[in-house]
Write a structure and sequence with these properties.
The protein is mainly beta. It folds into four domains: 73 residues, no CATH class; 91 residues, Immunoglobulin-like, CATH 2.60.40; 92 residues, Immunoglobulin-like; 83 residues, Immunoglobulin-like (Sandwich). The chain has three helices and 29 strands. A hairpin with a 6-residue loop joins β3 and β4. α2 crosses α3. It starts with a strand and ends with a strand.
């Protein structure tokens, strides 16, 4: 017999195929105040041959030949399948999409208190958002099962169910994984480099599958729109490295890469910034004798400053001047009577003007050839 019943304190039991229980055993399991409430409710119901009930959206009317006290107690406490507490559990949370072995999906029916049911007979259905499910089988012990198969498409299968036509609140999921899909990342040892044509950054790419298996034999190639790249170094552990050398112009260098000829979505940008001025160092002399050593008057840091260089002999006569000096003077005069002539060995005075509003640097220097 199927009975719909509302208990005295507002608890609702949905339809359940009744199984005989001894009234004395059931009454031992419930609190005294509920025994009293059930007895009063039962006494009212047994006086009617026809009665109606609205459990949520359901509205049904029954005409029973006999509604007994024992029927009432059995219906109230035998335990009905609850769409709130019953669970759906897959045998595994993920599978590879080429895997032919399906996933078992188990439904465990529970009552409103969360206790596992141990009998079958309910109508259980399952549905999935991805892949396919077999029909549901009743184990006749409160559990039901079906098998989920992959459709060959990577993604997440959301599995839902119903009990006797009512949707279950709990659901589950199984991830279908394509093990051939690669996951790549790129990092650099620094985000900025001086634009000096010599500073470098180490760039590392990691290649692995979606299941975290490192790929040691991928073909990785790098590209950049600024600076220069070294050859690729395969570290044989899923990591691939190159060295980026900065250009001499401040700009953004975007480094991208391909894996097995496929352009990857990951990339990185390194900024070439204006290098700080080098400290100025002016030597006390040089030897322009053509031996390849110390043949020009080199002012260290001159490339970072707009330098004006003036050279005077011991009598204060200017013999050389360059308003934008680039460390190329080899001891020849370009002023007065010494134009194009080698200046004699000896002591001279220089004036270095940085054109920044500061006073010129005036010191002596020596020209000494072999």
């Amino acid at each position: 017999m199927v009975i719909y019943i509302i208990q005295a304190f507002g608890d609702v039991l949905l339809d359940k195929k009744m199984f005989p229980l001894r009234i004395t055993y059931v009454l031992m399991k419930i609190p005294a105040k509920r025994k009293f409430a059930i007895m009063i409710f039962a006494a009212i119901l047994v006086t009617f041959k026809s009665w109606s009930l609205v459990p949520g959206p359901i509205n049904k009317t029954f005409d029973e030949k006999l509604i007994t006290y024992e029927n009432i107690i059995t219906a109230a406490f035998a335990g009905s399948a609850s769409v709130i507490t019953s669970t759906i559990v897959p045998s595994t949370s993920s599978i590879d999409i080429p895997e032919p072995q399906p996933v078992a999906v188990l439904v465990q029916l529970k009552d409103a208190e969360g206790t596992n049911l141990t009998t079958g007979g309910d109508i259980v259905t399952l549905a999935t958002s991805l892949g396919s499910l077999t029909s549901v089988n009743d184990n006749n012990d409160g559990t039901y099962f079906a098998f989920l198969s992959s459709s060959g498409v990577a993604g997440t299968a959301i599995i839902t169910g119903t009990i006797n036509g009512v949707a279950m609140q709990k659901q589950t999921s199984v991830i279908f994984i394509d093990p051939t899909v690669l996951i790549t990342s790129i990092v650099a040892s620094t985000a900025e480099l001086p634009a000096d044509e010599k500073s470098t950054a180490l760039i590392t790419v990691t290649v692995k599958t979606v299941k975290d298996q490192l790929i040691k034999d991928a073909i990785v190639e790098f590209q950049t729109n600024a600076g220069s790249l070294s050859g690729v170094n395969n570290l044989n552990n899923g990591n691939y490295q190159i060295t980026l050398t900065s250009s001499g112009t401040p700009q953004n260098a975007k480094i991208s890469f391909t894996v097995n000829s496929i352009l990857q979505p990951a990339n990185i940008t390194i900024v070439f910034v204006e290098p700080p001025p080098l400290p100025l160092f002016i030597p006390e002399g040089f030897s322009p004798d053509g031996d390849g050593v110390n043949d020009t008057f080199v002012i260290e840091g001159a490339d970072s400053h707009p330098v004006k260089l003036s050279i005077y002999n011991r009598w204060g006569i200017i013999v050389f001047e360059d308003s934008d000096y680039k460390n190329e003077w080899s001891g020849q005069g370009n002023q007065g009577t010494m134009i194009g002539e080698k200046l004699p060995d000896g002591t001279y005075y220089y004036a270095v003007n940085l054109n920044d509003g500061s006073n010129p640097i005036i010191r002596f220097m020596t020209i000494k050839r072999k």
